[in-house]
Amino acid sequence: MRTLMTVLLALGLSVSAFAGYDYVISSGYIPDLTLTGSQSLLMTGGGGNAFTAIDSTLMDIRNTSSPVILGESGIRELLIGGTSQLKFSGGSVNNIYTSGDATVILSGGQIGGIQSWYAFPANPNHVMLFCNPGYQLTYTGNVVTKISGTWLDGSAFSIKLYTYSGYSDMFSNMTIIPEPATMLLLGLGGVLLRRRT
Predict the structure, then answer these.
(1) Residue 153: how many CB atoms within 10 A of its CB?
(2) Any idea what the Cα angle at residue 187 is, between residues 86 and 194, rounded to 5°?
(3) Angle, CA of 148, 187 and 144, to the nearest 5°
(4) I need a labelling partner for 165 at 20 to 30 A (CA). Which of 23, 32, 181, 190 fits?
(5) pLDDT by residue for the chain (197 residues), tens digit each?
(6) What element of type H or E holds 8?
(7) Would residue 43 be called left, alpha or beta, if left means φ above 0 and alpha means ψ between -120 and 50 degrees?
(8) Is 110 in contact with 93 (CB distance < 8 Å)?
């Protein structure tokens, strides 16, 4: 049940979708914004320069202003640290920077790149990416430097992955989650196996 709730929340399917947010942005341009403590942000439109999440905060980005070229509108950068959570399901962001024990859940939109500072050993649950099967990986040497494919709604994405010396590589911190039909089949298979034992 807890896994199902995590998946529903990651996809933005909560009962009280707009209740309880400290900040709600639906239009305009916000130069900089920092969330601290347990503050939360819901963004359904507009754009901004640098949004920072520290402590145990939540950023729920569902849409931004539409860019002509990635980086010209939308959000320039999202900085996610501490034990904060970013849910990014629409809009555009040039770069996402993540560190500490932060969690990033990606399920839509245009994302230029992700840069992380996670210590070894890698925790594969730091970044969860919900997409259709058939995604492609681009390598530089033996390191994954880009992931491309389609989101669950069929729209395309291409995200650069940046790795820094002394930290675990970005791709090893990612969990790629298949489309809901595959997840349902896997769940049913688990139930059937459990009944047979």
Answers:
(1) 10
(2) 135
(3) 20
(4) 32
(5) 333 333 433 434 333 345 689 999 999 888 899 999 999 999 999 999 999 999 999 999 999 986 645 545 799 999 999 999 999 999 999 999 998 889 999 999 999 999 988 776 556 678 999 999 999 999 999 889 999 999 999 999 999 999 877 777 888 888 999 855 444 444 544 444 444 45
(6) helix 2-10
(7) beta
(8) yes
| CA pair distance 138, 197, nearest whole angstrom | 42
Torsion angle (degrees, nearest 10) of CA 24, 125, 180, 88: 20
Determine the number of helices (DSSP H) and then strands (DSSP E) in the chain.
2, 15
Residue type, 114: I
